[in-house]
Design a protein that fits this description.
By secondary structure, this protein is mainly α. 84% of the residues lie in helices and 0% in strands. It has 3 domains: 115 residues, no CATH class; 159 residues; 45 residues, no CATH class. The protein starts with a helix and ends with a helix.
Length: 370
């Protein structure tokens, strides 16, 4: 299945992204309908608003990348000098001429622009993804009007599955809202700070920090590398030190203290599983998989664990502290009731066996008592 998802990542990513967006805007559409707005108008308005935000984000991304591409050739001498210094260092530790020459050729404006463009994706792929997302938003918005009837039908046959998917929707919405708000604040701060420090491509790196805020644990380390690199080209080590102190300090507080506090209750995933999920989905779906790692992992847990009560006891092992506390509380209450009522369940079972009661009747009475 994992290889199938990797082969179809061009379809899986925009479809799942549209699904997440549909979940996030569903309360807004329901609120509009509650205020008397017709269902079709409410659905169309929310879809248009979401797609306008996505299109605006893509436009800003391309504009900042174009500005960065125009500015980077101005630093060609600094890049060449930095490449020469690195090749000299590599030669001193034993690297051969071919390896050092390859490193030197990489420190050119054209190579760097190509690398960044490859990471962000070309225009054709992004436009194609936007078209798929828009189409899926429209179709999912139309199908969403029939979901209450579908959930009512499923609730009669599989109530645990309906409960699991309702919890998944609420958890994803809380996660996306909290992460988006903190990511916007983080991106605006980084953009302003890097502009003050005169680091080239400040808007692009602000957008990068916003995107990387959706990557738990390692997003910050990815976002800080380009500002450090280009800060060194423009201002040398003083600029690098300023980026580490101000940029690194504020972003560390946001991603290590503030974000886990508000996001942790929504996802209920352990830090180990969260980090492993980022690596797993990045391998399967590429860089976008790391961004969508938490919603994808929550969906997997919903399907594999939460929808089946027989194996739902595994959920605390994934990091759900609330469930483990609730289970511990139930066990405490059960033992307390057993103590007030007389002998515990195990002693009652032994007493029944001493009176030669049939085993089936014994078990049934003990179960009823517990």
């Amino acid at each position: 299945m994992a290889f199938g998802l990797a082969a179809m990542r061009g379809i899986v990513i925009p479809v799942f992204f549209a699904f997440i967006l549909t979940l996030c805007v569903h309360p807004l559409r329901r609120w509009m309908q509650g205020r008397g707005v017709p269902r079709g108008a409410a659905t169309g308005t929310t879809i248009a608003a979401v797609f306008a935000l996505l299109a605006g984000f893509a436009a800003i991304l391309f504009a900042s990348l174009a500005q960065f591409s125009a500015l980077l050739p101005q630093y060609a001498p600094e890049l060449a000098q930095l490449g020469a210094s690195i090749t000299t260092l590599l030669e001193s530790v034993g690297f051969g001429p071919e390896q050092t020459q390859a490193v030197l050729q990489g420190f050119t404006p054209g190579r760097l622009i190509s690398f960044i463009g490859g990471v962000l994706g070309n225009i054709t792929s992004i436009v194609g993804s936007l078209v798929v997302i828009l189409t899926m938003l429209i179709l999912m918005g139309v199908d969403g009007s029939r979901m209450p009837a579908v959930l009512t039908h499923l609730n009669y046959h599989r109530p645990d599955m309906v409960t699991a998917f309702n919890d998944f929707g609420r958890g994803v919405r809380r996660y996306m809202v909290a992460t988006t708000v903190l990511g916007i604040a983080q991106g605006l701060f980084n953009w302003l700070l890097l502009t003050i420090l005169q680091v080239p491509g400040a808007l692009l790196w602000g957008l990068l920090s916003f995107i990387c805020s959706f990557i738990p644990n390692i997003g910050y380390f990815i976002a800080i590398v380009p500002p450090l690199f280009f800060g060194f080209l423009t201002g040398g080590w003083p600029t690098v030190l300023a980026v580490i102190v101000f940029y690194g300090g504020i972003n560390t507080v946001i991603q290590s203290i503030i974000q886990p506090k508000y996001v942790g209750n929504a996802v209920a995933l352990s830090e180990t599983i969260t980090f492993a999920s980022v690596l797993f989905w990045a391998v399967i779906l590429g860089p976008v998989g790391a961004v969508l790692a938490v919603p994808l992992t929550l969906l997997s847990r919903t399907i594999l664990l939460d929808s089946d009560p027989a194996i739902a006891w595994w959920r605390p092992l994934t990091g759900d502290k609330k469930t483990s506390r609730l289970s511990s509380s139930k066990r405490t209450m059960r033992f307390a009731r057993a103590g007030r009522g007389g002998a515990p369940a195990t002693r009652t079972l032994a007493a029944h066996r001493r009176h030669d009661m049939p085993s089936g009747e014994c078990v049934s009475r003990v179960t009823a008592r517990c």
